[in-house]
Amino acid sequence: MPEAHPLRGAIFLDRDGTICEEMGYVNHVDRLRIFPFAAEAIRRLNEARIPVIVLTNQSGVARNIFPESLVHEVHKKMVSELAAGGAHVDGIYFCPHKMEDDCECRKPNPGLLDRAAREHGLDLAASWVVGDRYADLEMAHTAGGRGILVMTGYGRGEYELHHARWPRQPDALAADLTEAVRRILND
Prior knowledge:
The protein is α/β, with parallel strands linked by helices. It has six helices and six strands; from the N terminus they run βαβαβαβαβαβα. It is globular, with a radius of gyration of 16 Å.
């Protein structure tokens, strides 16, 4: 009987506002603007042998703002730009639905996390979610993981305007992905 491998933790990253600039709907591949610090931050996780998975809501597909094929083109460009900086992601998962569709994969629901955990053999309780929206943190907490809110993208506004009403606070705050990675690696 083969020896079972223990599950490992991972870092789940939101895309827009965390890895790249928040642009509203990225309805053309040229609108993707990777933060200049993103590749180095992700490379540090790669060097620590921590899986990095991107999770993103892309309701523009369901709203007919852009086709699903564009999401794949944008991700191909993101992967290429990160690779140019010596970094890679181990998986990319996205929800193409609107909130009204009541699907399991739209953040804050944990469907994307659950799917990635199954497909990559990951322990969600040993994982972190890093994002610029409360929905990212809520997803992490629902799945038993920890969440870091970055102040890039919508992060600062979400935190300053709404954090007093959040049922659970972020496990940490970070100026950006670089600081979030530093905190995770020092934990």
